[in-house]
Amino acid sequence: MTPAARNVLILAAASCANLLLLTAASHAPWWGVLPTALLFALANNTVFALLHECVHGVFAPNRQGRAGRLNEWCGRLAAAWFPTGLAVQRVFHLTHHRNNRSPSEQFDIIHEGDVLWLKYAQWYAIYTGVYWAVSVCGVLLYALTPRFVRRALIRAFGRRGGVQTGADDYIGALDRLGMSARLEVLGAALWQLAWAWLLGWTWTGWLACYAAFALAWSSLQYTDHAFSPLDTRNGAWNLAAPRWLRLVFLNYHLHLTHHRHPELPWYELPRRAARGPRFLDVWLACLRGPRRPGDFPRFTERDIV
């Protein structure tokens, strides 16, 4: 089986799992909702990992012709499960690669002049899953409103707030996108609504599943960077985690290797991955919140497998 065919099979299986779990959560008795939601959190993180592959153009090895179209359409499908748009996710994620550990992405460091309430609000929004909700509402706002609304949001953060939250860079990146990016976001919303109508999803079932996903997804998104070196290429961790969990997340925990070699697909990352700290150790350190410079915790390197 080719790598592209394997990725398509994984995406199809995870998408079917999402459909089944969202439907089950909507019709299950109260005691069945939690385990269903936890399984959805795992399945949808697999889908997000494949979206990440599409963002970098490595879902299908050849980016040209039929493989390139496969990469884009599978990316749109994976994005619909977030829900977001492929173009929006690509411009945001590549902005992250350019700005990694720069002043606009030092959420773990308290600098002189920072707006402290905003620093802590953003931090704990990440570690409670609220970051996912803000992301989804943000892309819908982008799809439905004109540019001046985004400009007003940047002004609302203030100059310092816009830098320390990354709002200047990320909201500004949306201005480079065309109408097709908005249509992708609206298409993702319609995808969710169509399945909800066909399969009878309830708000309680849907919210339970996406709350579990939000917590799992959002936490990992910064744990793999928190308290790492202030270096664009090396400012990440290869987090030690159980092998089964890394497979579910398609090696997303090996984030340092990904930042050093963004051209590598998920199945190649373990061959290049050096030791890193344990995921749980970094995650627990994050619960104390951002730190002053020089007060970073020290982590012990662990075998990643």
Can you give the mean pLDDT? 91
The portion of residues assigned to helices is 55-70%
What integer value in Å does the Rg equal? 19 Å
Shape: globular
Count the domains: 1
Encode the helix/strand succession as letters.
Answer: HHHHHHHHHHHHHH
Instruction: Report the biggest beta sheet as strand number plus sense, adding barrel if it closes.
Output: none
- SS class: mainly alpha
Report, as a whole number of angstroms, the end-to-end distance.
25 Å
Give the number of helices. Answer: 14
Proportion in β-strands: under 5%
Can you put this structure into words, describing what you see?
With 305 residues, the protein is mainly alpha-helical. It has one domain. Helix content is 66%, strand content 0%. The protein has 14 helices and no strands. α7 (147-165) runs antiparallel to α8. It is globular and about 55 Å long. It starts with a helix and ends in a 19-residue tail after the last helix. The mean pLDDT is 91.
What is the structure about, briefly put?
Residues 30-275 form the Fatty acid desaturase domain. With 305 residues, this protein is an all-alpha fold. It has one domain (3-76, 84-303).
What attributes characterize this protein structure?
305 residues; mainly alpha; 14 helices; 66% helix; transmembrane; FA_desaturase_dom; membrane; transmembrane helix
